[in-house]
Design brief:
alpha/beta, two-stranded antiparallel sheet, 13 strands, globular, about 20% strand, about 280 residues, eight-stranded parallel β-barrel
């Protein structure tokens, strides 16, 4: 289990996303991993923010770290210092338009490499992004870190999984909206309509990724479906409703800190042949 933006998206159980407090709440709940968003500021710092704009409507990249902390936005360095080192962190890196033209030393990738070089020696890290170029460029600078490509809602796994394998990355991030609906039988005709590809069932997509040597993170499952994705072999679930997800696993007799051992992001070097592992 991975806490989405700490303890969950937006404000969950009173904890605002991407804050020190939200991340610590997820750790206190027993989650072995948290996910956070990081992007650059005008003075080349990294802050936690999902949106490209600050609460006042200005672009994050146009404001200094001091200006942003004044609006309640956390510094990445502060979160790394506060979260216990036994908790793994997935950093979802958000690039900006200026990353296409600025000197390389100022680009988001260079700032992330500098921020995580020492951190990777004391905790488990996964760097994810929707930008495959950033991930490929970072790999030589962070040899002890796992890298994963995120795919958007309704992005066909038929494209995403081969792309991650071709890029030589470690993890594919699949949103639940890119998989066959849980309630739709595998033999039922596809009902997505329009120009969308027919989506594979979760078990089919996970099996293909595992055969390619990739780990699979499923994004934003609801508590009612988390056990389904766990049974399908997903290596990690990024969840918004932490209490609801823990309760769902407890009802099924699972331990609360669920991971799948085969290549799980908890231990990127693990390649056990066991179907699943409750840790």
């Amino acid at each position: 289990m991975v806490g989405h933006r700490g303890f969950g998206r937006d404000t969950s159980s009173g904890y605002r996303e991407n804050t020190v407090e939200s991340c610590l709440a997820a750790a206190d709940a027993g989650l072995p991993w948290i996910e956070i968003d990081a992007q650059r500021t005008a003075d080349d710092q990294l802050v936690l923010r999902h949106d490209w704009t600050a609460p006042d409507g200005s672009y994050i990249v146009d404001r200094t770290a001091t200006e942003l902390t004044g609006q309640g936005i956390a510094l990445l360095a502060d979160v790394l210092d506060a979260v216990p080192p036994e908790i793994g962190i997935d950093i979802d890196v958000k690039t900006v338009l200026a990353d296409a033209t600025d000197p390389k030393a100022r680009r988001t990738g260079a700032l992330v490499a500098a921020a995580l070089s020492a951190e990777s020696r004391r905790r488990r890290l996964l760097v994810t992004s929707f930008n495959p170029g950033l991930l490929v460029g970072l790999r030589p600078d962070l040899p002890g870190v796992a890298f994963g490509l995120l795919t958007w809602l309704y992005f066909p796994p038929q494209l995403g999984i081969p792309a991650v394998a071709d890029l030589g990355l470690d993890v594919i991030g699949l949103h639940t909206a890119s998989l066959r609906p849980v309630e739709q039988a595998a033999s039922a005709p596809d009902t997505t309509g329009g120009d969308r590809h027919p989506f594979p069932a979760a078990a089919e997509a996970v099996a293909a990724a595992h055969e390619a040597g990739l780990d699979v993170i499923v994004w934003c499952p609801q508590p009612a479906t988390v056990v389904h994705y766990a049974a399908a072999g997903a290596d990690a679930l990024v969840v918004d409703d932490v209490p609801g997800t823990l309760a769902a696993f407890a009802e099924q007799g699972h331990m609360s800190s669920w991971t799948v051992q085969r290549g799980c992001p908890r231990e990127p070097s693990c390649r056990s042949s066991e179907a699943d592992c409750i840790q």
